Amino acid sequence: MKGTLAVTGDDAADHLVNTHPLALLLAMVLDQQIPLEKAFHGPRVLKERMGGTLSVEAIAEADTDELVTIFSRTPALHRFPASMAKRVQEVCRHLITEYGGEAAAVWETAADGRELLARMKAMPGFGDQKAKIFVALVGKRLGAAPRGWAEAAGDYGEAGSFRSVADIDSPEALKQVRAYKQEMKAKAKANAEAKS
Questions:
Q1: What are phi and psi of 195, to 5 degrees?
Q2: What is the CATH number of the domain that holds 109?
Q3: 3-class DSSP state for residue 108?
Q4: Would you say residue 69 lies in a domain?
Q5: What total of structural domains would you count in the chain?
Q6: Does the residue 4 lie in any domain?
Q7: Contact 37, 168 (CB under 8 A)
């Protein structure tokens, strides 16, 4: 797996999510209510705190309280370290149960984009939107999604768009995605105010 994702501003952290399937998947899990950069830097921090290894089995089999402590250590890995430690552990247990502990098998063995989207929706912590973004991420940044991925990803699969992390391959692209998200939040706020 080799990708072109450039989110964190930290070459080592970006390299990890571009070359380590579990790191990429966990970055998406962490991408909730914190900045993208922090979420995608999280796998590198977790790897360091777990003795230099990022392993599905080690996370799945860890004592949950110890994993929460690892996530909570200053600076905390996430705004909600306890719930995210448990979510990350749930994802790793799901990978063992469903994919033999191989994160890349989620997309490498999917028959088509629809199946990959369904697999992502079944992953702990992935709703419809996050699942579509991940399908687009694997297709756009890794070139590793199965046929039909762009259709399954919906608007996030559109070429040349700047809607999500799937479109970030440079600092400039990060700025464009951030501007798009701010625009969408402003529109949602305006719509909500108009209805009240």
A1: -80, -20
A2: 1.10.340.30
A3: helix
A4: yes
A5: 1
A6: no
A7: no
Entry pTM: 0.92
Would 6 be classed as within a structural domain? no
Per-residue pLDDT of the chain (196 residues; tens, 9 = 90+): 567 889 999 999 999 999 999 999 999 999 999 999 999 999 999 999 999 999 999 999 999 999 999 999 999 999 999 999 999 999 999 999 999 999 999 999 999 999 999 999 999 999 999 999 999 999 999 988 899 999 999 999 999 889 999 999 988 999 999 898 888 888 888 888 888 7
Q: Which of 46, 134, 140 shows the shortest CA–CA distance to 85?
A: 46
The whole-angstrom distance between residue 11's C-alpha and the CA centroid of its chain comes to 17
The 3-state secondary structure of 101-133, one letter per residue: CCCCHHHHCCCCHHHHHHHHHCCCCCCHHHHHH
Nearest to 89 by CA among 116, 120, 125: 125
Rg of the chain over CA atoms, in angstroms?
17
Question: For residue 82, what are the domain limits?
Answer: 11-195
Give Cβ neighbours of residue 144 (< 8 Å, ≥ 6 apart): 1, 104, 107, 108, 138
Using DSSP, state whether 57 is helix, strand or coil: helix
Q: What is the rounded CA–CA span in Å between residue 8 and residue 167?
A: 14
Q: What is the C-alpha separation between 26 and 17, in angstroms, rounded?
A: 9
Q: Give the residue among 30, 165, 173, 177 at the shortest CA–CA distance from 89.
A: 30
116 contacts 149 by C-beta, under 8 angstroms: yes
Q: Domain for residue 80, yes or no?
A: yes
